[in-house]
Every structure is written in structure tokens, then in C-alpha cells.
Amino acid sequence: MIAAINPTAFHIFGVGIQWYAIIIVSGIVLVSWLATRESIRVGLKENDVVDMMLWALPISIIGARLYYVIFEWEYYAQHPAEILAIRNGGLAIYGGLIAGGLVLYFYTRHHFINTWTFLDVAAPSVLLAQAIGRWGNFMNHEAFGEITTKAFLMTLHLPNFIIENMYIDGSYRQPTFLYESTWNLIGFIVIVLLRRKNQFFKQGEIALTYVLWYSFGRFFIEGMRTDSLMFFGGLRVSQILSAVLFIGALVLIVIRRKNKELPYYNRSYSIK
């Protein structure tokens, strides 16, 4: 059996640097570059994406933590000193997306940028970041699913290091981190390829397609996980939110399509 991956990559002056942090930061750098290049193609300023992210990143982390704490309040009410201990885990992606979305809205309004256009630029890169980020969960041995067998995992034709590192708490587990990472990566590729077609997406539809794609996959994958945040009555918070977002995005696409004057997503600007 392959030894379990150590979540700590190395130490600097006695402080452990986690693989999770390295993967997240690497993903942020990559998607920032991609989004910046795309922003130029649609006529935005080169620094718009970076300037917005300087605000969005810290606030998104706060939002992700706040979301998690709210739905785990029974525990944190008894351990208030751990509310700020994010090194121990406890960041919810939906909380980060909500907080980041609010920052994006106010940033675009303040700088007189079309919010839908900015969302269209950012959405595919966010999906790629989520695909990369799930590997941080793998390194932390978290976001896994129900008990399964090694034989089942082998039928998925996974590398042995993944199979053996899904042996958690005495049993092999469903690699739900991998299911979601793969789903998000496929979504990123599909959206980017469709985005290259002239007059395929109308303004705002790339962002709404991202919401449709992510929420659809997350709804089903969330049902396989064992660490879901729960709402009253034992309902999974992320499944409820995913269903609401999917329906909302679908309704918005239908309504906006009725506006014959709504422009198409325009990539006519070139990168110098």
C-alpha cells in the first residue's frame, strides 16, 4: 500500500506550508492570467481582472469561512476560539462564490463596467479554479464519499496513488473530489470551445451556463459526500442551493433570450 500523502508540503521557519494552499494559489494565478487575456478580447482594461481580484480574494475567503461557520454553528458556538482557525479546514465554496460575486458586482458598478460582461469573462476561469482546487481536498483527505471497495475504484482505471489515498478512516471511499474536479474541467472545456463560436452566447449566458453546469453536477455529487453541511430537517445545504441556482439560471436565460436587442458576447478585440 502506498503511504498516505502528507497534507504538509514543507516547512518555512517552522511553519507548515500545506499542499492545499499551494494548489489553490497555483489555480488562482493560472485563472487570473486566463481571465485577463479574455478580458482584453472583450474590450476591458488589462488590469480590471487583477484589480477586482485583489478585493475579491480576501473577501471570498471570509465569505467561505462565514458560510461554513453559520451551518456548523452548533459546534462553533461551543468553540468560538476556532472560528478563525481556517488552517484546521472549514471553507465552503458556495460561500466564497457568493462573497466574490458581490465584490464583482460592486466593483463593476463602481468602475462603470458591464457586470454581465465581466461575469462572462470570469465564469469559465472560476470553473477551472474549482477543478484545480478539488485536488487540495484530495491532499487533505477530505470531501470524500461513502465507503466503497478497492475493486470498485480499480474499475474506474484510477492511478494507484489516488486509489490508495482514498483509504480513509479504515475504508476505501468514493473519490467525490475527483468526480467534481472532472465535471468542472469538462465544463470549462465545453464553455471555452462554445465561446469561440461567433454569436453563440448572448451577453450573460456564459456566466449563466457556468451556473447551470456547476450546480447540476454539484447537486448529485453532494449527495454522495459524507461531510455535507446540513440544514434543518437533515437537508444538504449545497443540494438545496444547487437546485435553486440551476432553476434560477435557467429562468434567466429564457427571459433574457426574449430580449431581441440583447447583444451577443463579443470577442472582436485582439490581444497585442
Summarize the helices and strands and which ones pair or pack.
Layout: E1 8-12, E2 15-18, H1 19-41, H2 48-71, H3 73-76, H4 93-110, H5 115-139, E3 147-148, H6 150-155, H7 160-165, E4 167-168, E5 171-173, H8 176-195, H9 205-222, E6 230-231, E7 235-236, H10 237-257
Antiparallel strand pairs: 1-2, 3-5, 4-5, 6-7
Helix pairs in contact: 1-2, 1-5, 2-4, 4-5, 5-8, 5-9, 8-9, 9-10
Membrane topology: Multi-pass membrane protein
Pfam family, one: LGT
EC number: 2.5.1.145
Task: Based on the model shown, name its key terms.
two-stranded antiparallel ribbon; 272 residues; single chain; three-stranded antiparallel β-sheet; 7% strand; 7 strands; 61% helix; mainly alpha
Strand content: 5-15%
- The Rg value, from CA coordinates, equals 20 Å
Bulk shape? globular
Helix percentage: 55-70%
The total count of helices amounts to 10
**Gap from first CA to last CA:** 52 Å
Quick one: how many beta strands? 7
Largest β-sheet summary: 3 strands, antiparallel
Instruction: Give the number of domains.
Output: 1
Unreliable spans are none
- Main β-sheet, spatial strand arrangement: 3-5-4
User: Kindly state the mean pLDDT as a whole number?
Assistant: 91
